[in-house]
Structure prediction request, 282 residues.
Amino acid sequence: MRKNWRKRIGVLLLASGLAVAVSFPALAAPRKWEYDENGWWYGTNGPAGDYAVSEWQYIDGEWYYFDETGYMVTGWLDEGGARYYLKPESGAMLHSTTEVIDGVQYQFDDSGACQVIWPWKSPVVIPAESEKSETFKALDSMCDSILSGIINDSMSQRQKAEAIYGWVRGNLRYNGRSATRDWVEEAYQGIRRRRGDCYTYFAVSQALLTRAGFPSIEVIRYTDNDHYWNLTQVDGNWYHFDTTPRSWGGTYCLLTDAQMGALSAAHYNCFAFDRSLYPPTP
Prediction:
C-alpha cells in the first residue's frame, strides 16, 4: 500500500512538470541471525553492522543475551544481580522450569533468574513408564520379582534397605569386570549373570533401591574415579550403601560420612569422596 502511494506521488510530480526532489526516510534493515567461527550474532551486516551488543533480545519467543562483542552467550550468565542459564545448544534462556545442571538442581522463575534448590549431586531420575526402554522395563520386572521375595509392608524402611543389601551381597560374585557405564544396562546384565565389578554392584543396588522407593545417588571415589557406591535415603536421612565386597571383609550398609571416613583412612583411602558433592549423613 505504501509503495503504491509513493509511486502515485512521483507520477503526479512528473506529470505536472515540477522539478521537485522528493526524499523518503530509508527503512532500517531487519536484524537476522549470522554465524562465523566465533559464534552467533544478531545483526544486519555482520559484527561490523547494526547488531545486538551487551543486551537481551527477544527473538521468536525466546530470550537471548549478546556479549560486549555482539556474540550470543551460552551457559551461565551473571547479569543485573541475577544468574541465568542459556542453553548450550541454542542460547535460549531457561525460565519457568526446574533443571538439573552438572548434577545440581536449579529452579528458574518466569524472568529466568535461578536459585539452587538442591546444592548437591541429584538422585537418579527414573523416567515415566512410557519413556523407558525395553531393557529398563525388563529390569523393573526382574527387580519386582526379587523384591517380592525379600521385603514386605510390615518391614521398616531400614529393614527393607538391609534386605536389599543382603540380596546383592549374597547373589552377585565379584570378578572385576563390567560391560558398560550405563547403570540400567549394567544392572540388567548384573542380575542376569550374577557377577561384575563395583559398578555392577552399584547399578544392581540402584535398580533395587529405586524400585523399592529409596532415592539413590551415585558416589564416586575422587582419588581415581574407579570405585562406585550408593548414597540412599532411609527414614529421611542419607546413608552410604556399598555392596561391593572387600578383601578384608566387612559390611557397608547404611553408614554415615564419619564411618566411611574412618574406614577409608584405615584402608588406603578406599572410600575417599568429595563431601561437598553429596548431602550429609547424620
Remarks:
- Residues 134-150 form the longest helix (17 residues).
- The two ends are 75 Å apart (CA to CA).
- The helical segments are 2-15, 134-150, 157-171, 183-193, 198-211, 257-266.
- The longest strand covers residues 228-234.
